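[recover] target loaded
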């Protein structure tokens, strides 16, 4: 569902991503795991079609992002690491616009269910300008998952989110996998990555240093192995 070969991304003289290979399959969840500055968000932006690759090939849902970006974006849902919300719009207006752009029918029940699951029901008609960081994160996950995409990209979805929001995000990931979607989650939180995902791509300084099953990073032995990859 997502295939990346030799991905490199440069911003001037800075190489933010330096040679990543990735295979992410339907029904699985893959973590992009590493410290801040590891290249996780840049990789996610490339997969979302926001940032073009400098080198390498990227296919999402069967579409080459260099030549068929809009078709790929039609098949994915993306929660960016920052931003993504219109400050003067309410959660309901965000979802209403998303439904119109994607020509969704009978979307209202799905919208209400997601807002309630993420404890945003009470602020359905309040503009997002006054939202806390955690509320904004939760709303971004709602928007990404709303149309049941074939590829779900969640960039730092747990950042600043309370336990109930974490639980709701875990449920969204599980639901997407059960429906056969391919899920990618970027995070610096090892324990949540292990809980949410089946495989993990560990990044350090923009480079790929390991591609392992999530369970290999579990427990004290996994924590030591993870620290050794980052040092």
């Amino acid at each position: 569902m997502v295939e990346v070969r030799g991905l490199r991304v440069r911003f001037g003289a800075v190489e933010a991503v330096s040679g990543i290979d990735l295979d992410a399959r339907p029904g699985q969840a893959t973590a992009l795991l590493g410290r801040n500055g590891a290249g996780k968000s840049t990789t996610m932006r490339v997969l979302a079609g926001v940032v073009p690759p400098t080198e390498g090939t990227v296919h999402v849902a069967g579409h080459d992002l260099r030549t068929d970006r809009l078709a790929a974006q039609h098949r994915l849902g993306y929660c960016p690491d920052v931003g993504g919300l219109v400050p003067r719009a309410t959660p309901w207006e965000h979802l209403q616009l998303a439904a119109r752009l994607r020509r969704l029918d009978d979307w209202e029940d799905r919208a209400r269910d997601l807002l309630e699951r993420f404890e945003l029901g009470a602020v359905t008609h309040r503009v997002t300008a006054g939202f806390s960081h955690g509320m904004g994160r939760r709303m971004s996950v709602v928007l990404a998952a709303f149309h049941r995409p074939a590829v779900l990209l969640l960039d730092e979805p747990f950042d600043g989110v309370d336990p109930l929001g974490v639980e709701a995000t875990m449920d969204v990931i599980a639901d997407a996998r059960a429906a056969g979607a391919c899920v990618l989650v970027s995070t610096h939180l090892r324990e949540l990555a292990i809980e949410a995902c089946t495989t993990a791509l560990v990044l350090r300084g923009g480079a790929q240093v390991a591609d392992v099953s999530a369970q290999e990073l579990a427990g004290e032995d996994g924590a030591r192995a993870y620290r050794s990859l980052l040092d």
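[recover] notes: The chain has one domain: 2-230.
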